[in-house]
Design a protein that fits this description.
single chain, 3 domains, alpha/beta, EC 6.3.2.-, binds adenosine-5'-triphosphate, about 35% helix, UDP-N-acetylmuramoyl-L-alanine:D-glutamate ligase, binds ligand UAG, Mur-like_cat_sf, cell wall biogenesis/degradation, Udp-n-acetylmuramoylalanyl-d-glutamate--2,6- Diaminopimelate Ligase, Chain: A, domain 1, Protein-Tyrosine Phosphatase, Chain A
Length: about 500
């Protein structure tokens, strides 16, 4: 794939992004050199050739990266600032991230137009709902569905690799989309993080279906959002960038979402677990915690009323399942594909279940903020009212600091035993983090233990659990590493640690 400088000039001028060109230390508005083909794009100076267009972007970008690349032969750079380097051409723009998105989508020949693109946003449930949707669309399209999720990415519908970010940089996004198209994919499911809008990773992309799952305070910190208002604002930009929306009426300040969607004339379906004003609601089947009935409040225009089965415990997963059901119907799946896909969906590290040799229930779940831990423990308490809840949990170092107090608050209310441990401590001392959680557990009846070694903490929980009790191992899901002092230190994963220990008990 290639793109000419003339085309780039045209694109940047149309979007009013071009400031000037730098050529032989002089500045120009019109392209000062002959039209040339750009053969590659990169935002990493370590990965450029002479004909690459190099994007100078990022908090930690240093001029020396560009200098080194130019010394090695790089001819073209694009940046918000002119640099005194000996390149052939500098393209100076008002917003490098918007320019990168725009140039990338055209370089990769607008792959989004050859795919049905589905975008999930929300504080919680993006990965789970993306997986439900993937399983349904796999049924409907015979595995022609690509997916970009926090954990895993697949561009051929079948083979997965680990994702670097929830929503990739625009350049990577369009490269991956183009690969999905060349692999014959018809649909693409994406998780759209608030950072994706804040950093213009999805600038100019229109989603065929956008889904707003929920919002709660999270991701506030130095490299994320300054305030909850900024976080919520970034998330809801998905609405104006979608052709159709699926909205959860239980979302905080739902009227705002509704007004925004209606004012932009975007058709939408609203769903809820409780609100009878929504287009669709669900309720748990009386005879099974893993089955639920979907009902339309007026016309069943999507033809989805009926009973569905899922494998994932927790009421929040019925919310996720209904959102996916509505989404896939909009995207053209049949009701049969939806029934089958929902019934088969498993998500690594989300509500994974094990049974202790004494019969106790063990859940491994990725809950790592206030609302997800609260939902998880509320579910465990209501599903096992006669037993104790033993919770193994830590909180990350260097970010999400407010989660420590939040966890203390939830544990005080909803657990019987709290085993506080390490969870990606980063540069901080995990014992200090555990002490911070502990000091926020304002309930003397809660038994507390601090066991910094996560493997030992899980083993301790499994060694004290009674037959009617439940163990909840929260926070890391299937993560196979602990972030410690800047190093991804290998870790077996919560599920495997629990599974191995159970095996030793059986022998
Ligand atoms: C705040 C943020 O989103 N930062 C992301 C962003 O960083 P950045 O653009 O500021 O770039 P940088 O890492 O400071 O580096 C500067 C630039 O120099 C370049 N470089 C570097 C070295 C060199 O020799 N030559 C060179 O050219 C780098 O390629 C880079 O382009 O772009 C980088 C990749 O280009 C990301 O790795 C980085 O993610 C950071 C690590 C991160 O943790 N981001 C989180 C907050 C995030 O985005 N999370 C959301 C999910 C949130 C949720 O759970 O909902 C996500 O979508 O993943
Ligand atoms: N709809 C929901 N509402 C509240 N909590 C949920 C919901 N769905 C899942 N959860 C909880 O949040 C955890 C993370 O779920 P999931 O990975 O699907 O969400 P996510 O939005 O991708 O999260 P993250 O942004 O943290 O990667 C689950 O393990 C579960 O505890």
């Amino acid at each position: 794939m290639t793109l000419t400088l003339n085309k780039i000039d045209d694109l940047l001028k149309k979007e009013d992004l071009l400031k000037e060109y730098v050529y032989q230390n002089n500045w120009y508005y019109n392209l000062p050199i002959a039209n040339t083909e750009i053969k590659e794009l990169s935002y990493d100076s370590r990965n450029v050739t002479a004909d690459t267009l190099f994007f100078c972007k990022g908090l930690n970008f240093k001029e020396e990266y560009l200098e080194k690349a130019v010394d090695a032969g790089l001819k073209f750079y694009i940046s918000e600032n002119p640099y005194e380097v000996n390149s052939k051409l500098g393209i100076i723009v008002t917003d490098i991230r918007k320019a990168m998105a725009l140039i990338s989508m055209h370089f990769y020949e607008l792959p989004q137009e050859k795919l049905t693109v589905i975008g999930f946003t929300g504080t919680k449930g993006k990965t789970t709902a993306a997986y439900f949707t993937k399983f349904i669309l796999d049924e409907a399209t015979n595995n022609k569905t690509a997916m970009l999720s926090t954990m895993n990415t697949t561009l051929d519908g079948v083979n997965y690799f680990k994702s670097a970010l929830t929503t990739p940089e625009s350049l990577d996004l369009y490269k991956m989309m183009a690969e999905a198209v060349s692999n014959g994919m018809s649909h693409l499911i994406m998780e759209v993080s608030s950072q994706a809008y804040k950093l213009n990773r999805v600038y100019g992309l229109t989603f065929d279906v956008g889904i707003f799952l929920n919002i709660s305070p999270d991701h506030i910190g130095p490299i994320e959002h300054p305030t909850f208002d900024d976080y919520y604002y970034c998330k809801r930009r998905l609405i104006e960038n979608s052709k159709r929306m699926v909205l959860n009426t239980d979302t905080k300040d739902y009227p705002l979402l509704k007004e925004l969607t209606e004012s932009k004339n975007i058709p939408y379906y609203a769903y809820s677990s409780t609100d009878k004003q929504a287009d669709y609601t669900w309720e748990t089947a009386v005879d099974s915690l893993l089955e639920f009935n979907v009902q339309s409040t007026h016309e069943d225009s999507l033809d989805i009323n009926g009973r569905y089965k899922i494998k994932l415990m927790g009421d929040f997963n019925k919310d996720n399942a209904l959102a996916s059901l509505i989404t896939t119907k909009i995207a053209g799946a049949s009701k049969e594909a939806a029934e089958k896909g929902l019934a088969e969906t498993l998500v690594p590290g989300r509500m994974e279940h094990l049974t202790h040799p004494n019969g106790a229930n063990i859940f491994v779940d990725y809950a790592h903020n206030y609302s997800s831990l609260k939902n998880l423990l509320s579910f465990a308490k209501s599903a096992h009212p006669d037993g104790k809840i033993i919770t193994v949990i830590g909180s990350t170092g260097d970010k999400g600091v407010s989660r420590r107090a939040d966890f203390g608050k939830v544990l005080a209310e909803l657990t019987d035993v709290a085993i506080l441990t390490a969870d990606d401590p980063g540069s901080e001392n995990p014992k200090d983090i555990a002490m911070e959680i502990s000091s926020a557990i304002d309930n003397k009846d809660i038994e507390q233990l601090i066991i910094v070694d996560r493997v030992e903490a899980i083993q301790k929980a499994l060694s004290i659990v009674g037959e009617k009790d439940s163990v909840i191992i929260a926070g890391k899901g299937q993560d196979k590493y602990q972030k410690i002092k800047g190093v991804d230190t290998p870790y077996l994963g919560d599920y495997s640690v629990a599974e191995n220990y159970i095996e030793t008990l059986k022998n």
